[in-house]
Design a protein that fits this description.
Its cofactor is heme b. By secondary structure, the chain is mainly α. The protein contains 19 helices and no strands. Helix 3 packs across helix 18, helix 4 runs antiparallel to helix 17 and helix 8 packs antiparallel against helix 10. The N and C termini lie close together (10 Å). The structure holds protoporphyrin IX containing FE.
């Protein structure tokens, strides 16, 4: 008899709790472990209680023994470091805009950390610069003091890069050794570290292209860096920045969910809904498009293509330059002109500017479309994503405005630099939008569900337990 009562009690309790606090389907939908035994639930719940008392930011162990999350400190460090990457991108842009990037003619990763310290050392550095194509062809008029300015611009850029290396690598090792990072995040940190190392090499590879007269002859270019290499350097910096930010945001988001599992139920329901699928795909598309638009901007910057056609929306007198200008045979390097198209698309400043204008227009229209779509589907969309999308609409409008003024005023340094910061802001908000719409990882769903089930059981014990016991006894009687 007593076994029968216990069995009935457990089943009834489970049913009642599900009906009282959550529709059963809601709970089961989020988990594959909804059949957790009472023992597991209890273990998971006591662990949740323990965690909610302690500061989750200092604990890498999450609500159950099944998952290890990274601490919030790791997230703050990653987001802070991504801020340093943001800063170095802007500084890199200023270095280019002040034409300082080719002032240091060597790459000494360690000894180069110190600038020249005596008059002789400055003279020696200036002597090396004097033998560079940039000095000989463009800057032969500058004196030592002017050289010191461009030298410092580039030196600070390189020093900042080294500092990012240290600020990233040392804490990464520390956090991993202290088990403050989950295996999932460790993998990402490894990739980010490798990318950071690569970024240094790409930087030097880019500078080399502006110092080597042979390469300049091949490109028939004045002494500037190759637009391909500049854009690669810009692209890897963007990826590094986005990778750090994404990982940091992910950690904060998951820790927040684990701390307040009951607050996730509504959100998870929306994120899991198939009706959100199209918007999720659109968010990926928007990030991709913002990134490609930014890279096409890098090509404009690399070719100084903003110094021509300083009108908007028309390009000169017409909406589009003539076909002859856009597909200029002077840019081909083959007799059969088979490379006419791609060389013009990537090397002809007029065509490259038109490409950037086209991508920018597409990006603006795409955000506008998604914004309108989201307004129509408002009830389906989590509230934080709605807010982010409004911000995205604002940022893309501002960015287009900055691009237009940069063109109209023939690329003044302050506008060009703000436009570059705007591009970073645009990819940041696009990334946040995409991140907020991502479905939670299965492991996280499982943990949240276990802890929800445990809470339900706990509440049920207190609130409805008595009633069910009475009902169960009545049934048995
Ligand atoms: C809406 C999205 C846009 C994005 C994401 C974007 C992004 C960028 C980026 C990343 C650069 C490279 C900056 C650098 O490395 O210094 C750039 C350069 C440039 N963009 Fe845009 N841009 C957008 C719209 C526009 C528009 C609408 C125009 C003008 C019609 C424009 C004109 C320019 C010009 C002239 C440059 C070269 C500036 C320089 O030489 O430093 N952009 N853009």
């Amino acid at each position: 008899m007593s076994t029968k009562i216990t069995n009935n009690f457990t089943t009834e309790l489970w049913n009642h709790t599900n009906n009282v606090f959550l529709k059963r389907s809601d709970l089961y939908k989020y988990t594959t472990t909804a059949t957790t035994t009472t023992m597991n639930i209890t273990r998971s719940f006591s662990s949740t209680c323990h965690n909610s008392k302690s500061d989750s930011s200092s604990s890498a162990t999450s609500t159950t023994t099944n998952i290890r999350t990274s601490s919030n400190q790791v997230a703050y460090w990653l987001i802070g470091t991504s801020g340093l990457v943001f800063g170095i991108v802007i500084l890199g842009g200023l270095t280019r805009l002040t034409e300082s990037g080719l002032s240091i003619t060597e790459w000494k990763p360690v000894t180069g950390s110190l600038p020249p310290l005596s008059q002789e050392e400055w003279e020696e550095e200036f002597r090396k610069y004097k033998s560079s194509p940039e000095f000989q062809q463009l800057n032969s008029h500058i004196n030592l003091d002017e050289f010191k300015f461009i030298f410092f611009m580039e030196w600070i850029h390189r020093l900042w890069g080294r500092a990012i290396g240290l600020v990233f690598v040392i804490p990464a090792i520390y956090f991993a050794a202290r088990k403050r990072t989950s295996p999932h995040v460790n993998k990402r940190l490894f990739y980010l570290c490798s990318l950071l190392g690569l970024q240094g090499f790409v930087g030097w590879w880019m500078v080399k292209s502006g110092l080597d007269q042979e390469q300049l002859n091949e490109r028939k270019s004045k002494p500037t860096v190759s637009q391909y290499r500049l854009t690669t350097h810009l692209g890897t910096a963007f990826i590094l920045y986005l990778g750090m930010l994404w990982t940091g945001l992910d950690i904060l988001k998951e820790n927040k969910w684990l701390k307040n599992p009951e607050k996730c139920i509504e959100l998870f329901k929306k994120l899991d809904s198939s009706k959100l699928g199209p918007l999720r795909k659109m968010s990926i598309f928007l990030l991709g498009l913002s990134f490609i638009t930014a890279m096409s901007g890098g090509m404009v910057a690399g070719l100084d293509a903003g110094l021509i056609y300083n009108t908007w929306p028309k390009m000169g007198e017409n909406w589009f330059p003539s076909k002859r200008e856009l597909m200029d045979p002077n840019f081909t390097r083959r007799d059969d002109q088979k490379d006419l198209w791609w060389r013009n698309l990537l090397e002809n400043p007029i065509t490259v500017q038109l490409v950037h204008r086209t991508f920018a227009t597409l990006a603006f229209c795409a955000v506008l479309y998604v914004h309108m779509y989201a307004i129509k589907k408002k009830p389906l969309i989590p509230r934080n994503s709605q807010m982010t999308l409004h911000a995205l609409m604002g940022v893309v409008t501002l960015q287009a405005f900055l691009g237009i003024t940069t063109i109209l005023f023939t690329v003044p340094i302050h506008l060009a630099s703000t436009h570059q910061a705007g591009a970073l802001a645009l990819v940041t908000v696009s990334l946040m939008f995409m991140n907020q719409l991502r479905k939670p990882r299965m492991q996280i769903k499982n943990v949240i569900n276990s802890s929800m089930a445990a809470r339900l059981k706990h509440q049920a014990n207190g609130n409805v337990g008595k009633r069910i016991v009475t009902e169960t006894f009545n049934l048995v009687k």
